[in-house]
Amino acid sequence: MAKRNIELSINADLLAQVQKENHAVVDDFISQEIADQLLADVNRLYSSGQFQEHYFQFGGVLLKKPNVFELDLSDPSKLDVRDFGIWERVVRDVGPSFIRRMDELDRTSSGASSLSLQTNRPPAIKLQINAGGGSFPWHFDNPGPPNKRILTCVIYLNPSWKEGDGGEIVLCPFLSRSIVIPPLHRRAVFFLSDRILHRVLPSNTRRVCFTMWCNGQGVNAINEVVLSKDVLQFTSYDEAQRFFEKSPLQRVISRAVYSEEYLESLLECLVIRVDNTIGDADAEGVTEEERRLLLKQHDSSVLGIRTKLRPLIDEFRRRKLRTETIN
After folding, report:
1. Calpha distance 109→16 (Å, rounded)
2. Per-residue CA distances from 159 to 35, 70, 231, 242, 315 (Å)
3. Could you tell me if 212 and 101 are in contact, meaning their C-beta atoms sit under 8 angstroms apart?
4. How far is CA 316 from CA 13, 239, 241, 242, 312, in A?
């Protein structure tokens, strides 16, 4: 019996929204049948110990995110030594066809912004399970060189998710209201990897997703990484805001503009919520010395940015607060 094709809901309207808004949400991105097969094989792989705990680096400290487990499928050679079930088709067929289709739409689009995808390599793919309590702090999927990511696509596999379960992804377009997106079954969330600050709220129950990252040509060119004096020749703060809203250079100033939000989410993701309270840091594996180093690194980073760009940062922080108070 022939295997059913895995079809994704990709069209010109999707790309147009990504080009205009830097993000898009697509429901029913994959069929119910395929989603059920994907989830069944995720459960099998997790039960057989194929997932690993997630670690991340902040400053000079390597830290573990409690209750977050991942399986990286970016290396196709892994497929030859284990039974990955339907995920082998995702890696070998769906990923490459996904990036080719997005590139076709991009090249024929009349939109002002081009993704310029690298089609000579498939997207990186990673499976993730938040086992309850896990979260992610504010970050960019492409924080800078040597990263080449331009487009992120997160697909959710949570058939029983309901309000109150947590695990929502939160997008923060620069100086705009945050967008809270529930991780509904078969939903896909697209966003530009170098221009959308985002985080994941703590999960109160099990949450499953997989992510595809597409690389772009010319990503992280010097004018997208270095905030030079020539760039800062704005005639007004309104002009400056319009520039940073669309530019990867927002990454340079983001931590200073959103300093409290960064720190709160960073500390939150290192502990597990129990009965809506945050447990003792030491009891959850984060030592006081690690916490001290995190605070020091964060404060140092923010101070370095504000010292050089204080008037601009202070104005953007005022605008951020006004945005947050708008009903």
Report:
1. 8
2. 9, 19, 47, 39, 43
3. no
4. 32, 12, 8, 12, 6
Per DSSP, the three-state class of 101 is helix
Q: Is 93 helix (H, G, I), strand (E, B) or coil?
A: helix
> Taking the model in full, what pTM does it have?
0.91
The tokens for 253 are 């100033």
Q: What is the pLDDT of residues 196-222, one digit of tens each?
A: 999 999 999 999 999 999 999 999 999
Q: Give all strands (DSSP E) within 73-135, no chain letters.
A: 124-130
Q: Which of 66, 37, 38 is nearest to 137 (CA)?
A: 66
For residue range 33-88, list pLDDT tens digits in order: 999 999 999 999 999 999 999 887 776 667 778 889 999 998 777 777 789 999 99
* 154/169 Cα distance (integer angstroms): 10
Q: Which tokens belong to 35?
A: 């989603």
Matching residue, tokens 């800062």: 232
